[in-house]
Amino acid sequence: MYVSKYNLFIDLGEYPDLSIIQNIFHGQSTVVPKSLADYLKNAAPSGDLSDLPDAMLSLLKKKGFIYDVKKDEDKQIETIYSQFRKTLPKANPSRQYQLILTYDCNLRCIYCFQKKIRKTTDNAVISETQLKDIFDIILTKERANEEEIKQKELPTRVPLISIAGGEPLLDTPESKKTISNIIHFAKQNNFHYSITTNGVFLDKYIPIFKSAGYYPRDIQVTIDGTKEYHDRRRIGVGGAGSFDSIVQSIDSILEEGMHISLRINVDEMNTSSINKIADYILAKQWTGYDEFSAYLAPVTDHSSVNKNYKWLKQDAGLIREIMRMFAERPELESIFTMKNFRGFQYVKRIVEKKEKAVPTIWRCEAVLGQLVFDPQGDLYTCFEGAGNESARIGTYSPSYEIDAQRDREWKSLNAIENKYCRRCSYRFVCSGGCPWHIVGQQATECLPVEEEIRLAWNYYAPRVLGSLA
After folding, report:
1. Is 458 a domain residue?
2. What is the pLDDT of residues 201-246, one digit of tens each?
3. Helical H runs in 20-126?
4. CA–CA separation, 196 and 165 (whole Å)
5. Is 78 a residue whose pLDDT tops 80?
6. In whole angstroms, what is the distance from residue 215 CA to residue 218 CA?
7. Total tally of structural domains belonging to the chain
8. Which of 22, 291, 368, 370 could bond 259 through an S-S bridge, CB–CB 3.0 to 4.6 Å?
């Protein structure tokens, strides 16, 4: 017999006689006596399960914890990958297009990953000519997508235009006109659009949204804790704080019925303010709006520009501290979701949906054909890598040209093809790590996935133990 290498055997501190077997390929999980978990773990190298009765072997095989031979598991992986690929149209499988309107920004955040880019680019905004070129490319791609979807009866979804920067919503006539043009293009073609903004001037764009009669699918705004912490981290060009302006914008947007995703970037500097920002959110009554959501996300440095930023946490210490807070104050879990804590999210999906997790083969849109357009006329697949020559895959203005080799390299950075991760047991949870990290630093990003999964199951065990047994 072959014991799956993707099995994770998790001891439960509050239940010393029990363990959870979590298969981190196909997502099956179950509670078993600790003695059985230990037996399987010790037998994995040899595959000798002769001490187990046939009924138990049959059950373990049915759940995918063991196979007759390793090739059976390999074949299952190949089949799932092949099936996934067949559902994707070739022109742009992601069906996402990101427009970096400008690299200019009115804030100087202390952990900004674009700080070097601003020094090497001007403050240009995507021009009307460039915008026309972008629209033509998008329409060409989407016509090809729709034709293939119709012919092959593939699953379909609405294309998404993501608007970002720098800061896309600067308080200038040029920026406002560009945003208006993008909204009208999206509306005319029945595309969704979303905006990632620091929120300082967001409320000044409400008349543009209302005039177009077409609201964003989502507006992401960031607040890094209470005013005290936020204004030390997300600082205006002249040194002024930005908290009050952002809060005013959030109030105005929610009153208009538009969706706000409030991101709280967390690291060791501001983790202690999570309870206070939760209190603030409740006091503002934002959670009373159906169109409001908030999430915690770790500060990262995939661009390797913040090596001297001492508050970054690379291990599971951050999620451990957050989970401690959640345990002490369960209400926090109803206020905040988590993003980019992949091990924790993996378990949470299983617990909340009470079903096995699907293997995540593609980390993000960057490896699924997303196109990112910047004001220099360059093309990328990754927003975080934009502005860096090593991430560029071509140009769109004055001519549309794709470097086929670079494009293929990005698309190969998935959990199956990524050369760094082919033998890793955790590749179907982290999906091979951040592709920009790999391209920019020529090394994979190994996250504390295992520790997060163990922490998460011990956190959720008292709540769900009965339903999983």
Report:
1. no
2. 999 999 999 999 999 999 999 999 999 999 999 999 989 999 999 9
3. 34-43, 54-62, 70-86, 115-120
4. 8
5. yes
6. 8
7. 1
8. 291
